[in-house]
Amino acid sequence: MILDKIREGDTSAFREIVEKYKDVSFSLACSILKNEHEAEDALQDSFIKVYRNIKNFRQESSFSTWLYRIVVNTCLTMARKSKKMDYHNDNDYPEHDFSFDHNTGFDNLVVSERKRIVNLAFERMKPDEALLLRLYYLAELDIKEIKEISGFSESNIKVILHRGRKNLLKDLQKIIGKDLKKAL
Amino acid sequence: MKEHNIRNIIKYGIESPSAGFTDELMEKIVTDYSIIRRTRSAIVLLSLGCLACSLLLILLITFPEFNVYGYTFRLSPVIIQVPGTLFLLYQVSQIYRIHEFVTKLNNLKLTNNLTTC
What we know:
The complex is a heterodimer. Chain A has helices at 2-7, 11-33, 36-53, 63-82, 111-124, 127-138, 143-150, 154-176, 180-183. Chain A is mainly α.
């Protein structure tokens, strides 16, 4: 098993783990820190922690849950240090050079434009909403696993997810400028 | 809106760290791991050296005069100071080595990760 190889000091096995989880972990870090450089630093610290402590991982939870918990805790510590727990809540979006016709809809956009739009919406969201949405939809964790990572109660998670979904769609509609339901 | 549509939208927004992220991380891990291993071996050598020098000092103080194949050796208090001095020099050199490793770790900004998460 790959975890046993890492425990024996196999760094190439650890590289596989990094490659597999870095994108989702980076997205989670961006949800909290709202800054790519800080998110990358936090991610590096998190993976080093994982490597050093993998011998203590007792597989009581899944590896991904354990990893994401370390990522989230590292980011929260970093956010507290730099006091960046605030978020943009203004409704005025800055001018962005989106080269698409508002009538073509979300589905007709090129992948890079879709990515920019979704990330812009995520940047504007509250860190807890962005984090929980990404844990649920991107990392594909269930409510119990999210509870383990975030420390929120199950009912609170459901409320935040509901609010997050609503805010995400609202923000996307504002950016695209048309009804997203129709666009999809 | 259906759940799978929201999932698809969120998946469009998956972000990636910079291109050299994995290489940089692996380099840090390998360097960090080798520094920790060398620091540990220096600490073990320091402890063993201290133990050996202490034993030698105890033996020399306890038996200032001893017989080997009919020859009697008498150690003056000056001779006893030689292993004592070597012992101190060895200790200082090992402490300096450990200090160097810790400085390297600080430079790598990794010392904050030494504690368990």
